[in-house]
Amino acid sequence: MREATSLGHMTNNTTRLDHVVLWVADPVAAAAFYQTAVGLEPLRVAAFMEGKVSFPSVRVNEETILDLAPKTFVERMRMLPGAADSAGHPVNHVCLSLPADAFDALRARLADHGVPVSDIDHGLSGARGDATRSFYFRDPDGNIFEARHYDD
Known about the structure:
Elements: E1 19-24, H1 27-38, E2 41-43, H2 45-49, E3 57-61, E4 64-70, E5 94-97, H3 100-112, E6 125-126, E7 129-130, E8 133-138, E9 144-149
Parallel strand pairs: 1-4, 5-9
Antiparallel strand pairs: 2-3, 3-4, 6-7, 8-9
Pfam families: Glyoxalase
Domain VOC: 16-150
Protein name: VOC family protein
């Protein structure tokens, strides 16, 4: 029995994931990887290169982005005691949920860019239940991503 969810009733008054900050060696190169190999839209790259913003980002969807923070930014991470210690310690992985055709396109795009991918897993549990298919890949900075799709 599935629990009731509010997936179809999202408004600005619901809790959602806004962004994840990834530590990267070269934010411009990272943005290029996410644009060319993953197919995500880069944001603020020119402004970063001009020194107008501290880091660029890439858009996952209309409400979620990945910030690409340079490891040299560590001294500025003072929002909590010990926050700077997270530099170089990526999260275990970030999962991107895609429609089936986009899942297949991503796997092909990563292969075209020589990015190693794991075998396909089936039935791994996530926010929307058990995924139909999933696989893992790593960005050039060592951040691990899972790509998955669910049957709708």
